[in-house]
Fold this sequence. Notes:
This protein is α+β, with helices and mostly antiparallel strands. It is 27% helix and 25% strand. It is built from seven helices and 18 strands. It has helices at residues 33-45, 95-104, 120-126, 167-171, 187-204, 224-230, 259-277; strands at residues 6-11, 23-28, 50-53, 59-61, 66-72, 80-83, 86-90, 107-108, 129-130, 133-134, 139-145, 151-155, 174-181, 183-184, 237-238, 241-243, 251-253, 286-288. The strands form six sheets. A five-stranded antiparallel β-sheet has the order 6-7-13-11-12, with helices on one face. A four-stranded mixed β-sheet has the order 1-2-5-3, covered by helices on one side. Strand 15 (237-238) and strand 16 (241-243) form a beta hairpin. The relative contact order is 0.14.
Amino acid sequence: MDSKRVLAREAMSRHTTFHIGGPADYFLLPQDAEELGRIIQVCQREQIPWAIMGNGSNLLVSDRGVRGAVIQIYRNMAQVFIEGCRIRAQAGAPLVALSKKAMEASLTGLEFAGGIPGTLGGAVSMNAGAYGGEIKDVLAEVRVLDRSGQIRTLPADQLEMGYRTSVIKTKGDIVLEAVLSLRPGDAGEIRAVMQDLAQKRAQKQPLEYPSAGSTFKRPEGHFAGKLIMDAGLRGYRVGDAQVSEKHCGFVVNRGHATCADVLAVMEHVQREVREQFHVELEPEVRFLGDEETGCVL
């Protein structure tokens, strides 16, 4: 593996949209599925802990960093191919880029994903969605590397996709590639829908600050942001971590927030919502790293 794609003691704050996180022992950038498989084999043989990440848009990384190897599937595994009404793409392809390519090919069905900051792999694993659409609505099949090292292709109807979950997530498989099934449309109309959604997102979401997107999952029968607002927590702050004043469903980094700051805000929010409304808020953000005991994630 090229030494330029093997980094030691790499600051994870450089690789997350939260801009938070201490150093990973090893930060690896495989160029294809075969190299990824070899890396995992070495880690397993040498008993080195390892974790997979995309572009870090849904990660809160410990201030103490990550012991072992962090393997990023993003820049080197992001090819996209248009095949009629289908898009076949590698796991590291950003959803924003996929949506744009679909628009350029006059394919409709992926407009909802135009502002989701994650990659296709993470989106498939957690069934990402926004504005009434979800990945499961357009997913045809997925190619995964399972924990035994086998590469398998699975049809979408075997993935048990639900709200922010799938069998891929529960089993810990690694998405390598996915096929999306779209419909013919008008490029101008698709562009108009995407521009409208982008405008709504800019108006409602705190895009001016680093974050990991929606901090908590939507509780059944409720909206996390409204519960947090109704609990009187708009603007609640610990250090530079703050419940967004623009959208209470987001915890943002006002400058130099630490993981500990974010966890303190999240714990307080969970406690207040539980006490006031008897609703448990489950984190949507994914935690990675070596953190003190008692963390809520």
